Amino acid sequence: MITEALDDLLQRYTAAYASAGVPLVTEANGDWQAPIYLGAVDENEMVRWQPVRQQSGLDFSALMNALEEPFHDDFKAYFSRWFSADLAVDWQQHPLWLLHMHCDEDAERMLANQAGHVLMKRRLKQPVTLFLGLAEESDDLLITLDNTSGAVGLEFVGQQQHEQLAPSLTEFLAKSTPRVVENPAVIG
């Protein structure tokens, strides 16, 4: 199940950083009262963080109604479980970043970006996908979830999925390996 796979990935992720002795640090927005932030955002807009369970899951209903497009249950579950920084993972030796939301304000931004993505897919007459992250090798290579099948794949912005990574988000998360990234800024 998706929630167990996501919980397990976050547990493995925080454990990998703890084992390596590397603090969890993320770029932050000093205007947000994000529950994941541990302390004040520093002058480099960096802060230590920890994942925090959402009190009530993100509500997709207004966006789905406006787009007249129901979203895949796995996608809704993924973004309705945790507030977190983006996660650096490897998928079969490919470095990826899985997107997450820091707080409610960040959730609003994510929903607006998803709306733009869905509208672009419609305009291009392509199957609807929902983006989950980015490949590190290219800013325009997205990790997406096929909104019909639930398969996780790769697609370049404006293109259709060209490679399937996993038949489901649950399998994708279970087989993703946390990647410890040395943070350039030292947080005091």
Automatic annotation (TrEMBL):
Keyword Cell membrane: yes
Any Pfam family the entry gives: Syd
CDD domains membership: Syd
InterPro entries (UniProt xref): Syd, Syd_sf
Keywords: Cell inner membrane, Cell membrane, Membrane
Highest taxon, organism lineage: Bacteria
One GO cellular component term: cytoplasmic side of plasma membrane
Gene3D superfamilies: Syd protein
Transmembrane segments: none
Protein name: SecY-interacting protein Syd
Species whose genome carries this gene: Pseudidiomarina insulisalsae
Highest classification ranks of the organism: Bacteria, Pseudomonadati, Pseudomonadota, Gammaproteobacteria, Alteromonadales
